[in-house]
Each structure stands twice: as C-alpha cells, then as structure tokens.
Amino acid sequence: MNEYIRGIKKGFPICLGYIPVAFTFGLIAVKMGFSPLEATIISFTNMASAGQFAGIRLIEGGAPYIELVITTLVINLRYFLMSLSLSQKVSPALPFYKRAIMAYCITDEVFALSVMEPDEISFPFFGGLMTTPILGWTTGALLGAVASSLLSPMMQGCMGIALYCMFIAIIIPPARKSRKVTLAIIVSTLLSCMFKYVPGINILATKGGGGWAIIISAVLGAAICASIKEFKRAKKLRTAEGRAS
Fold it and tell me: 188 with 217: CB under 8 angstroms?
C-alpha cells in the first residue's frame, strides 16, 4: 500500500499537466462532431495525446480503417521502445496480465518517472503512478467536451491553437538538444509541405484525413536522416582506415 501511495504522489504533477491538454482534446473532439461521452471514452481507452488528435482528424475526414490504424501506429511507435525498456526494470516473475495493465498507461511522462527509479519497479508503485494521470487525462477530456457548449465560437477557435502548441512543445525541447532530431524535424516538415502543396501528390494530404501523408513523411524523414548518419559514419570509418594504413 505504501508503494501505491508513493506512486500516486509521483504521478500527481503529471495529472495536473494532462488536464489542460485533455481539455483541448475534448473541446476539439466535440467540435468535430463527437459526443462528450465518445470523447471521454476515447481518452480513457487511449492515453495517447498525439495519436488521439490525429485519430479524430482522420475519422472526421472519412479516412479508411487501414489508414487510421497505420497512422496511429506510426505516431505511437515510440511506446514499443518504452515498453521494452521498462520490461527490464520489472520482476521476471511478474504475471502477464499485470504487465498488460502496466502497458496501458506507458506515456512519455510516466515512462520518464519510471526509468528514474533506482530500484526494480513494483506493480503497486506503477499502479499508483498510473492512477492520477489516467484521472487527469480522462477528466480533462470530459470537462473540455462539456465546456464546448458553453464557450463562444470565437473562444473555441482560439482553443484549437492549443493543438499546434502541444506539438511544438513536444518537438522543440529534444530538437534543441540534438542536431539529429532537428534534422529529422526539418526533413519531415519539408516532405509534409511537399505533400500539401505540390500538385499531383497533394492528394495524399487532402484525401481522408491526410494520414498517408503523415505516415510517409515520418517514415521517409527518419529513413533519410538514418541514411545521412550512416553515410557520415562510413566516411569517418574510411578516413580512419586510410590514416591507419
């Protein structure tokens, strides 16, 4: 019980941070035609902000299921790596169903606090760490969905800007620390603009919710940056071999 309470205390700041972002999600979801109940259920069952925003946009645009699935898979691909990392910090004897419960709430912030734990992560601690973020994310979405009917159209439009602010807040901090991340962002942005404005291929950005443009931009951008890195590594290796000989 003490470990569960400790997890709740650790996760409470995450809860407070999730509420305003989830509020915006609930607001935008209702504006797109979802009911408050649907917006709340989406938040409770997903716990993936970027994936949720992209998902409701694709649904609104009438995108096919395969496009919706692949887009959210690409956007949330980082959770696979986080899960693999956290699996090394739990007891090998932990039952599968408990691992599945823990996997439900592996978010960027929860993962960050978990990997900072010096010792093995217990199930009660992670359960407490999950509790408050889940409540904050779900409650925020519910409040935003309900408040959508109380806000003026102008205020609703202003709140929509929060979506773009959220994405900027996600990419800028790591970009400032790593040139590789900065390069990946620039390349993916240029590809996205190409799919948006170049005649002939801009159908990918206009058809459905534009999910295929997101998928191709993300995957191709990462592949280009990885190729550049590998080219530089091979060049340094050849230079070192030349000097050695």
Answer: yes
Question: CA dihedral in degrees (95, 98, 100, 106; nearest 10)?
Answer: -130
CA gap 125, 9 in Å, rounded:
10
Q: How far apart are CA 54 and CA 193, in angstroms?
A: 17
- The 3-state secondary structure of 56-120, one letter per residue: HHHHHCCCCHHHHHHHHHHHCCHHHHHHHHHHCCCCCCCCHHHHHHHHHCCCHHHHHHHHCCCCC
DSSP E strands, the chain: none
Q: Which amino acid is at 133?
A: P
Rounded alpha-carbon distances, angstroms, from residue 179 to 45, 71, 174, 226: 35, 26, 9, 13
Q: Collapsing DSSP states into helix, strand and coil, what is residue 1?
A: coil
Q: Structure tokens of 186?
A: 């620039």
Predicted TM-score of the model (pTM):
0.66
Q: How many angstroms separate the CA atoms of 50 and 4, rounded?
A: 28
Which residue is listed with tokens 């940056």? 225
Q: What is the pLDDT along the chain (245 residues), one digit of tens a residue?
A: 788 999 898 888 888 888 888 888 888 888 888 889 998 998 898 888 778 888 888 887 777 888 788 888 887 877 888 888 888 888 888 899 989 888 888 888 888 888 878 888 888 999 999 999 999 999 999 998 888 777 777 766 666 666 566 667 667 777 788 787 788 888 888 888 887 787 777 666 565 555 667 777 777 887 888 888 788 888 788 877 777 66
